[in-house]
Specification:
Radius of gyration: 29 Å
Number of helices: 7
Structural class: mainly alpha
Number of strands: 2
Distance between the termini: 82 Å
Shape: flat
Mean pLDDT: 78
Order of helices and strands: HHEEHHHHH
């Protein structure tokens, strides 16, 4: 057995879990999950029949088709958040709007359960941002340079990490003035 082959002795569940954690970290996982969980009660409750002993309580309403469409769209938006996370802001806004529409259409938004889950999922989807890779530590030679500064000296000033720099304007290299002989009038035609 060679030291290069470290992965062959790992348990398949550990390998699966590590891959799932990596997949989950690269997309708005919880936003998609909450949105899908919010869509299920919105779509289910208008078609549900509850049996209380010998009494059947039917909750079917006239908005049954509308609530089914809203629930299916919320589940679809949750899957979109998972598998096409580039459009996460659109999916989040659409999930919030569908959750708000479900209040009058689908039994108070699935008895507020589906409404709250869909609202939370949409908000999480809008606010999610992909993580930036962690910067590498300083090279081996830079450690000695840092220690040469001294222990008690720390430069005061703002420390900006991973911010975008404003490009500096370059001075003009050529004279851009135009000599016009029409008496200073400018015409578009």
């Amino acid at each position: 057995m060679s030291p290069e082959s470290t992965g062959q002795n790992e348990h398949y569940l550990r390998v699966f879990w590590r891959g799932f954690r990596t997949w989950r970290g690269n997309r708005p996982f919880w936003a998609g999950l909450f949105t899908m969980v919010g869509g299920l009660p919105i779509a289910y409750f208008p078609y549900a029949n509850m049996h209380l002993g010998n009494v059947i309580l039917a909750m079917s309403t006239t908005g049954g088709a509308g609530s089914l469409i809203i629930g299916i769209l919320l589940v679809t938006l949750g899957l979109t958040m998972w598998f096409h996370h580039i459009v996460r802001v659109f999916a989040g806004v659409a999930a919030i709007l569908l959750a708000l529409i479900s209040i009058p259409v689908a039994n108070i938004g699935g008895f507020l359960v589906g409404f709250l889950f869909a609202l939370l999922g949409g908000a999480l989807s809008i606010s999610w941002a992909p993580g930036e890779p962690k910067p590498d530590l300083a090279p081996d030679g830079a450690v000695g340079e840092k220690s040469a500064v001294g222990l008690g000296t720390h430069e005061s000033g703002p420390e900006f990490h991973s911010t975008a720099a404003v490009p500096q304007q370059q001075p003009e290299q050529y004279d851009t003035t135009v000599e016009v002989d029409d008496g200073g009038r400018h015409r578009a035609g």
